[in-house]
Amino acid sequence: MKLVFFIIFSSSFIFCSNVKKQERVKDYNLEGVWILEEYINPILDNKTVVKSRMLKPSFFGILISIDSVKINFYGSLNSTLINNYNLSNKKKSVNFENKDNSKWTLEYDESKEKIVIYEVNDTIKYHYKKLDDIDDLNANNVSKKITKYFNDYLIKGTYEIVLPKLSKGNIVEFGENGSLKGLGIYEEFKIYNFFGTLHQYGNQEDVLFVINEKEESYKAFNWRFENDKLILLEFIEDPQYPKEKYITGNNKIILKKK
């Protein structure tokens, strides 16, 4: 009887030990889209895109798209792929190499629910938060997705014209999906996101396009906010570099957000 009890007790102990050991390994479900906080937070807080464009991870990893087997980084210049990743509280990090041959580490901070990356031998850490506003992300639509995000969170809304005086009091509507009403013939708008390498409007100016596709017409404005006013200053061709470079002219529109 004592032998039977000992066998049962021992088996139960081994079973419980195995259960506890299994419970210690917790796989992280990170599937979805993540956005670089050090990039997007200053843009939303200060309402300017241009000052975040030179952040090191912005070139390859403004957005991260994660599924069950791979991690895709998408930036303003290129992308990076991590295949067959596995992250858990037992395996807390994964190393990857960027296309410029720089070496990085990715971790998940469970306490803050953020993804963290840092370059090997560098102390600066960059953080990503989960994003519900963007889905179905891929290399072909990432630029459009980030532009829509900027449109929605920086410009979209109803405004009243303050200047020019001839149009004072008229309403301008920056609407869903880049729709535009109240600025002459122009029916669409989009914020320039600084993807790519060709920046005809300079690297220090925030740019807003207003567009009429039917008439193949558009205008470009430098945009900035002063409290509740949106200031638009139209770009003109640089006389020294016509059709290659643009500078701000004197045509100004001031809109007050309602």
Write the layout of secondary structure elements.
Blueprint: H1 2-24, E1 32-36, H2 37-46, E2 63-66, E3 70-74, E4 79-83, E5 93-97, E6 103-109, E7 114-119, E8 125-131, H3 142-155, E9 157-163, E10 171-174, E11 179-183, E12 186-191, E13 207-212, E14 217-226, E15 229-237, E16 246-257
Antiparallel strand pairs: 1-2, 1-8, 2-3, 3-4, 5-6, 6-7, 7-8, 9-10, 9-16, 10-11, 11-12, 12-13, 13-14, 14-15, 15-16
Describe the structure.
The structure is a single chain. With 258 residues, this protein is of the alpha+beta class. The protein folds into two domains: 32-140, Lipocalin, CATH 2.40.128; 148-257. Helices cover 18% and strands 40% of the residues. It has helices spanning 2-24, 37-46, 142-155; strands spanning 32-36, 63-66, 70-74, 79-83, 93-97, 103-109, 114-119, 125-131, 157-163, 171-174, 179-183, 186-191, 207-212, 217-226, 229-237, 246-257. Strand 6 and strand 7 (114-119) form a beta hairpin.
Q: Low-confidence runs (pLDDT<50, min 5 residues)?
A: 1-24
- Major sheet size, sense and barrel closure: 8 strands, antiparallel
For the secondary structure, the number of strands is 16
Task: Compute the number of helices.
Answer: 3
Residue fraction in strands:
35-45%
Oligomer: single chain
Q: Estimate the mean pLDDT confidence.
A: 89
Please give the domain count: 2
Name the helix and strand elements from N-terminus to C-terminus, one letter apiece. Answer: HEHEEEEEEEHEEEEEEEE
- The end-to-end distance, rounded to whole angstroms, is 85 Å
Helix content: 10-25%
Rg result: 25 Å
Overall geometric form = elongated
SS class: alpha+beta
In spatial order, strands of the major sheet run: 4-3-2-1-8-7-6-5
